[in-house]
Design a protein that fits this description.
The chain is 25% helix and 2% strand. By secondary structure, the protein is an all-alpha fold. Strand 1 and strand 2 form a beta hairpin. The longest helix has 32 residues.
Length: 222
């Protein structure tokens, strides 16, 4: 088996999968194998998870590098450049670049920005303005969103595992399918947030700290 085939197999993909499929497979597998989801006293599984993550990261980086290089070579010059990612967004969305890796984004304005499917894990977005932003399927493991404005944001299926959401404004946000396991939601305002379909709760809140949070119905969590 060649290294290329091995990388696809690690990500549980068929050879020739697209860059989008590579990125999605990476997010799915990181979610499954992240050590924070495994009991710390289980040393065998902790070690296995770390080995898995190492292999998953290597496979993703190798395939991304290969595909980016291939796209650069295969793309021929055009007299009129094709629209950029943000130029293709609807008029209601701002044309702002996605957050950069390892940058301090506290207080930044990303209102109505399209950040769907981005990897924002570990970023500092405290007190940032993300009102009306599209954050569906976004990976935000351990992101700092303390005091951030997420009112009316679309967080459909977003992964917010162990995120800091203290005093965050989540009024009217769509949280259907979001994973808020282990998040710190102390003092957050979830008034009118969408978390249910009828009587069925459709957001993961396992281990979340909701002390003092304003719940969707306006009641303060005790």
């Amino acid at each position: 088996m060649s290294d290329l085939e091995r990388y696809y197999r690690i990500l549980e993909l068929e050879p020739g999968a697209t860059l989008e499929e590579v990125n999605q497979a990476y997010k799915d597998l990181v979610f499954v194998w992240h050590p924070d989801r495994i009991p710390k006293e289980n040393l065998r599984l902790q070690q296995k998870a770390q080995d898995k993550l190492k292999a998953i990261n290597e496979a993703r980086e190798k395939l991304r590098s290969l595909k980016t290089k291939h796209q650069t070579i295969s793309n021929s010059p055009s007299p009129s450049p094709s629209p950029s990612y943000y130029q293709q967004q609807t008029p209601s969305q701002k044309t702002q670049p996605p957050p950069k890796q390892n940058s301090d984004l506290s207080g930044k304005d990303y209102s109505r920005a399209n950040l769907s499917n981005k990897d924002l894990s570990g970023r500092n977005l405290s007190y940032a303005n993300l009102s009306g932003a599209n954050l569906s399927d976004t990976f935000m493991h351990k992101v700092n969103l303390r005091g951030a404005n997420l009112s009316e944001a679309n967080l459909f299926r977003a992964n917010l595992l162990l995120a800091d959401l203290r005093e965050a404004n989540l009024r009217g946000a769509n949280l259907i399918g979001a994973d808020l396991s282990g998040t710190d939601l102390r003092g957050a305002d979830l008034t009118g947030a969408r978390i249910r379909s009828g009587e069925r709760l459709l957001v993961k809140l396992i281990g979340a700290n909701l002390a003092g949070a304003i719940m969707p119905d306006g009641e303060i969590y005790q």
